[in-house]
Specification:
Elements: E1 5-10, H1 14-24, E2 30-36, H2 42-49, E3 53-56, H3 65-74, E4 80-85, H4 90-98, E5 103-106, H5 111-122, E6 127-128, H6 130-138, H7 159-169, H8 174-181, H9 185-198, H10 204-213
Parallel strand pairs: 1-2, 1-3, 3-4, 4-5, 5-6
Helix pairs in contact: 7-10, 8-9
Amino acid sequence: MTPKIRIHLADDHQVLIDGLSNLLRTVSNFELVGSSLDGTTVYDDILSDKADVLILDISMPKKDGIETLKEFKEKQSSCKVIILSSYDDLKIIKEVMKLGAKGYLTKNCAGENIIEAVNAVYQGQEYFSDAIREKIFNTFKDNPKLNQHIIIENPILSPREIEIIILIALEYSGKEISEKLFISSHTVETHRKNLMKKLNIKSTIGLVKYALKNNLINP
């Protein structure tokens, strides 16, 4: 039997926790194991209920989501964190990503986005709602080297992989890509290797050729 994904909720509004609980219980491979209304208890609560995924609000009493993430990072928690917040400020998004959050959603997102996010981060992927992804990408969209590229859907690549391959094709370094997308250099390198394997490409030049051939960028 496939193990269920154990989920903990942390938000200072009981109404939101109740609503999320009802949503998550509709998914057969999810198990809601606990909730927290106070930021000071989140880390201990996670240890107690052995959660795999934490859905965390930024605005929490006494100890906010940022401070909670810092504690998780300091104590090297293995629990994967998804931020569910009313804030879409890029500074906050950037900070929580650097602190190890694996996903970011705004509270006006659809329930299906939350379900997708839980499944994605549990499997070791990152997940951003469309609005957040667009906001992140727009931070470097005005760069003269980037204003020629074309964002299209690709049947093979995920949205994150498309972003990575575009930046590789435009000669951004791994460090520059990590800064643009608010992810670690290690994650960038992992994406690079996965892209080469998925596309059966043996070099960075091959990735550039793929981007050109599939209209991800214009020459």
